[in-house]
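[job 0417] fold request received: Uu.00g074380.m01.CDS01
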Amino acid sequence: MPAESDIQHVTGVSIRTRTMPQFSGSEKPRRWIKRYRTEVAASAASVLSTVTAFPLDSVKTRMQTYPYNGALHCVRMTHRLEGIHGFFRGVTAPLASVTLVRTISFSIYQRSKHDYSNWMKKHMGFCPLEHVNAAGTYPNLGTIACFGAAGATAGSCITFIACPFELTKLSAQVSVLMANQKNADPKKQAIAMSYHNKGTFKTLANIVKHRGYSGMYTGLNLHLLRDTLGTGIYFATYESSKHFLTTFLGKDAHKNPIAVLAAGGLCGIVSWALIYPIDSVKSIYQRNALMYSKGQKVPIPKIQFFRRDMYRGLGVSMGRSAAVNAVFFSAFEFLKKKINALQD
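[job 0417] inference complete; emitting structure tokens
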């Protein structure tokens, strides 16, 4: 409420007026940061984790779309043909997209988990968030379902933002390999060559040129399936493992960097291990589609679990994901704690 003060009227009668409180120049930004602490922490942590692990993502994509004799062979060939720059091809797109996507994803997830928790409390008499915050409890089917549903909701929503960026990133990562690939069809070869050594925005313009504006959403169905399932598993694993470690270690996991580090690494490993064939088919389909013109039908590879070639690059992907999420969640929880500690 505005503060009240007394002043003397010209007649000498005391009257009461209201004066607005004065804020220093640093208080408005501080209030904004505290209000949007989830988004601010997620954005900063995303930039750090993306740059740290992008070379592993590049190796993973190359191994999914082209045959290599293992990860080391892929690293050696990439370095020999393209140098260090080859491992960072397309990094601009994910720096923008991953930051945006994670920020929106975490915002949707935070709201969704409270909505689902309230719904379960109202209709089932069990509140997952109250259970998690109670001392001495462990994860159960109710908490896993709540966090998984909230994660799936976030994953399905961000797919429509992430798909064009990820397609652009994939194109940049394999553009040299596409150009060197010998195609029997000269038209496909010409289209493949047109992607060679282009930046993020030129690549996006090239996709629109050959496949129209709808081409930016090539592979959307596969992307939606991957992100809905993967993000649900991702958040359910993170929250559940953090909850378990909180009780097991007898400490607040938010204040225990080892618990956050372990939960962050584990959620990346588990989610990728379970949905990797879907991601492989998405990458192969998008790579193939880049060599087709608008209106041409692109065959969709069949998703086959437990087939060996569907898991090419899985080790690299799991290592990358563990590193990315360990760095991300450590930075995320650290920044949120620092923001919460700011004076109101």
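[job 0417] notes: Strands lie at 3-8, 14-19. The two ends are 15 Å apart (CA to CA).
[job 0417] exit 0
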